[in-house]
Amino acid sequence: MPEMRFSQSVSARLDGGVLVVTINNPPVNVLSAHVRAGLIAALDHAADAPNIVGLVISGTGRAFIGGADIKEFGKPPVVPMLPQVIDRIEAFEKPTICAVNGVALGGGCEVVLACHGRIAGEAASFGLPEVKLGIVPGAGGTQRLPRLIGTVAAIDLIGTGRAVKAGEAVALGLADAVAADPLAAAVTAVRDNAGGALRRTGNIDVPAADPEAVSAAEAKVIARSRGQSAPAEAVRLVKAAAGLSLEQGLAEERATFLRLRDSEESAALRHVFFAERAAGKVEALADIAPRPIETVGIVGTGLMGSGIAVSALTSGYRVIALEQTPEAAESGRERIAGILDKAVQSRRMTAEGREACLARLEATAEIKALETTDLVVEAVFDDLSVKTELFRRLDGIVAPGAILATNTSYLNPDAIATATADPSRVVGLHFFSPANVMRLVEVVDCARTAPEVLASVLAFVKRLGKLAIICGVTEGFIGNRVFSAYRREAEFMLEDGALPQEIDAALEGYGFPMGIFAVNDMAGLEIAWARRKRLAATRDPAVRYVEIADRLCEAGRLGRKNGLGWYAYPDGARTVDPAVTAVIEAARAEKNIAPRAFTKDEIIARLLKAMVEEGTALLAEGVAARPGDIDLVMINGYGFPAHKGGPMFSVGQNTEGTI
Ligand code: 3HC
To answer: Which atom of ligand 1 is nearest to the CA of 137?
Structure first.
């Protein structure tokens, strides 16, 4: 039987009376207008053909359907709209069963829910991640999912946007079965159902739910939504499904979807989505094959080094961790094992997974052991002479093709590279602490870094499941430069009349998990203090300098760990301390500054302006390639709320093609 074509992306073949419809819209089969039109045409064809007993819907490649086409948002609507396609599938008179070969997300999952049966392949995953884009499902997800899996589980899935794999989908009732060959299983299921009563999800009553469990599930979603509105709206719609007809529920859902789709929150989160996809792409590297990396050396097993080691081990790498003495190597091994233990305790890892990781770990005090590594990441004390000496030694030990990466936060990696005979193999990999948790890695493209080396570390960071942002050499790289500018502005405002708790409250109200002074207390004040003392001799006396932080450090207030910093921490709880207010007032008096009141909006506006000015300078200097890269650094490294899109987005500096 020849292939039938229903649109540029939808084709079908007949398999003994079953029309097997395939969506082929690379890379992830999103529901573009031609896919929707093709599906309707396939249904029309099947409806009119007496020899067709039913349909199977499947996708090609790694996706079943990746969701609605986000690039269509904000453009004039093109019929058929997705809800129309989905209603037609559910109402279809012949069994329509999906063979879910890969990801079924958003609108893709909504297609799944509308089918009369659902067979998952082993690579299938299902999710309604719309809240991550600041919207709610807009084609029946909030109304059909609770009918299939109950209100509590639906609140969890839709409210968090979390995807589930095939096994969990079956356990929840979202899929009927897992099959090694989902297409064949779906064809059989269509034949078995032909002529029988069809199971339409919309006709199922939402199962009764325990109100306490519903409240608990809702509270969990709201607690992690950090001021975003979509999760709460999604929960409201899921809860409403039990009391509304399908038609009423769908109308309410669609109205909410359209309202949120046009919101600033959704525009910001879509910007973040596309900025992330753009971040890893470097045109100049497109044709360069990364070097294979299997064995990673990590020098230093302190907080940072052990976090990097865990991240590499859990991503399948072999790790050789180097310390100065056998005892330190053994403590490093224990620290790494301890992090893995915690992952097992919190069920993020199985005991077997932990064993497999530890089997790939060697902790040693013999630098020669690094000769078999493909990449060495240095995470030792941030001191130029320590690092240059280390790189000089590493350069003579590792193979000629091996890459040397420094995790320095403030030193110049070009200066470190000069210690090697081949600076083209040196690159910066600035991880954020704790490195096994934090997603961001600033990849520092040094003056002499070879393109192949850059491509290789980008692939490495990707395999770690982290987000790589490329940046040029500058003191503090993108993140610490913007952070310093923003911190400086916050301290100017202290002198001008705001108090730490007022600035922190404004930031937390804006969506930061913690205000800047609370963050500084958590990180400890002494490193920045030491740096200020180092720079004191060369500081331009004409440039405004706020001494309040120095006064606090001199008074022994070094942050949370000694119970006193910008706040006091009696019993661990953050508390305003009149002693800090007194230091601030004294500093203002010394400079004859008459304090004035600041509104929350004013505080935010001044801090954003400081971040944007620094970001603009980074772009002008060529240190950062795109405004979106700066946004991603601030969101993933410094707690900037994703639903505000990042500092550059917040003032209208958009990434091309975002909305
Ligand atoms: N719309 C438009 N483009 C999309 C897209 C979408 N829904 N999903 C992915 N893409 C694009 C990406 O921008 C990227 O394009 P590029 O190559 O030009 O940069 C390309 O597809 C590949 O994406 P990834 O690099 O992310 O590929 P991965 O294999 O790593 O991941 C994925 C695939 C898991 C599908 C991931 O892309 C993803 O999570 N996509 C978003 C899924 C989503 O949020 N769907 C819901 C959409 S909203 C919706 O459906 C509303 C409905 O309820 C009405």
So the answer is: 53
